[in-house]
Design brief:
490 residues, 3 domains, 73% helix
Length: 490
């Protein structure tokens, strides 16, 4: 009986290895096809052609498990998704096409999901985790388990560490100079990094359609014949890929990288220490608020994945302090981003988008703090989502009560070069675009520029618009307060 089990396991493994090799070859062929279709070219119908190619490759790779009726249904879903992209490729039609591809794959290859909630959960897992399966699955082709395990342990820290360094280089000219000392041009002379990244992205995106693997309900068959210890199913994500060892390595590396950025910000941004000769303070201060926010969001996603409830890392006495330290560094990073944006606004004035950026950065900082609270209080991710939704709701509600038009206009006039002797000049056109609520600020501008008769006539049109707002059908408390403010000025 033991020999039978041994023979079965020995026979199955080469078959699985061979099937995985064929699927990898198909994915590489799709990547080459995508390179020919998309790289360096304008896209349109090519997206439709590539979607059909993905669907065809998926059918060929999974033909043994297909059901004819479900395949027809999936084909209809895909056909409906192709129509808007054929009509005109835009953001909406592209999203419809991607959704149709995923739904068609679900209908065709996953008969176990019948309820709406199960299907939504399956599609969510497919979108969130599917693109990250390529590298762990490809590692199964290596026969040297130690080498595969070493790659799995260091793959995530190395990839995310490189992304963080790139974001820091985009946000910090000093780090950019350090990175430039590595002289990557030597490599770029032989290899196109952009093309390698393009192929990597395509392989990650098409792999879930080629090597289809949904989470199945566990069914325990009755024990009839003892065939030995069954081979465990392939994990959705290998244990080494996001296990405690990988998380520990990642956190140590990330804390060191973030500490370097925090020290530089502490010296140059907060402490006003003299910068290197070829870097100006304005360049350092006004650059990189948005890359740093992207860094914080990526860090938050990693913490949520690493410290999932019930996971081994969540209970680790070594990993938890490193997580707290890293989240704290990310909060400091967001504070630096807010300071950078404040310095930028101080020179280039306030706009709606910059106010939105301030609010967004505050919500990111609060979200990071709530992540730490979730870990400390041992709450669920559902609690975390609810807390963030409450914060977002309160922020949006409060924002609906703020007169941003008047605030922006008053701020820009009060901090303009005409008023303070520094900063940007008053942009009268932008003030006029804010509507009647900018009238008090415009009156100050007209007092400063008495010779601009054109501005006076445009101001009068705003006054007429404001009078129309005072009619009972269009009346609002904000317009009524503006009328009293104008009347008080005489």
């Amino acid at each position: 009986m033991t020999s039978l089990a041994s023979t079965t396991t020995t026979d199955i493994r080469p078959i699985r290895h061979s099937a995985l090799s064929v699927k990898l070859a198909m994915a590489l062929a799709l990547a080459a096809f995508a390179d020919w279709l998309f790289y360096g070219r304008r896209i349109g119908l090519a997206v439709v052609i590539f979607a059909i190619a993905i669907a065809t490759a998926s059918l060929l790779a999974n033909r043994a498990t297909l059901n004819g009726r479900r395949a027809v249904t999936g084909g209809i879903v895909l056909g409906l998704g192709l129509v808007p992209a054929i009509e005109e490729l835009n953001t909406l039609s592209f999203l419809i096409l991607v959704a149709a591809l995923a739904i068609a794959l679900l209908v065709t290859t996953n008969p176990e999901t019948t309820g709406l909630a199960d299907r939504a959960r399956a599609l969510r897992n497919f979108v969130l985790f599917g693109p990250f399966r390529f590298f762990p699955d490809a590692l199964q082709l290596f026969n040297v388990s130690a080498f595969s395990r070493a790659i799995a342990l260091w793959l995530l820290p190395a990839v995310l560490g490189t992304v963080f360094v790139a974001l820091f280089a985009a946000a910090n000219p000093v780090i950019e100079q350090w990175v430039s000392l590595l002289n990557p041009n030597i490599i770029l002379d032989y290899v196109s990094i952009r093309r390698v990244l393009f192929w990597t992205a395509i392989l990650a995106l098409v792999w879930p359609f080629i090597h289809v693997r949904w989470r199945r309900r566990t069914v325990v068959p009755p024990a009839t014949v003892d065939l030995g210890e069954p081979e465990p199913p392939a994990p959705f994500v290998p244990a080494e890929f996001l296990g405690p060892s990988t998380i520990l390595r990642s956190l140590i590396l990330f804390n060191l990288l973030f500490a370097a950025q925090s020290v530089l910000d502490g010296l140059y941004l907060w402490g006003h220490v003299a910068l290197p000769a070829n870097v100006t303070y304005a360049e350092y201060a006004h650059r990189g608020a948005y890359p740093l926010i992207a860094t914080a969001l990526l860090a938050a996603a990693f913490v949520l994945a690493a410290m999932r409830p019930g996971g081994a890392a969540e209970k680790s006495g070594v990993i938890r302090p490193l997580v707290y330290l890293w989240v704290g560094q990310n909060v400091l990073l967001v504070a630096s981003s807010i300071l950078r944006l404040d310095l930028y606004v101080d020179i280039y004035m306030l706009t709606y988008w910059r106010i939105a950026a301030f609010i967004w950065m505050g919500l990111v900082a609060l979200g990071l703090i709530l992540i730490m609270v979730r870990i400390l209080l041992d709450r669920s991710n559902r609690w975390l989502v609810g807390a963030n939704l409450i914060a977002l709701t309160i922020s949006l509600y409060c924002a609906s009560l703020v007169n941003f038009d008047a605030f922006i206009a008053d701020y820009n006039v009060a901090h303009s070069r005409e008023m303070t002797g520094r900063g940007a000049q008053i942009d009268a056109d932008y003030l006029l675009s804010l509507g009647p609520q900018a009238l008090p600020a415009l009156d100050k501008v007209i007092a400063l520029r008495a010779d601009e008769t054109c501005l006076v006539s445009r101001r009068d049109r705003l006054v007429e618009q404001h009078r129309q707002d005072l009619a009972w059908r269009s009346w609002g408390l904000r317009s009524w307060r503006l009328e009293h403010r104008l009347a008080a000025r005489g």
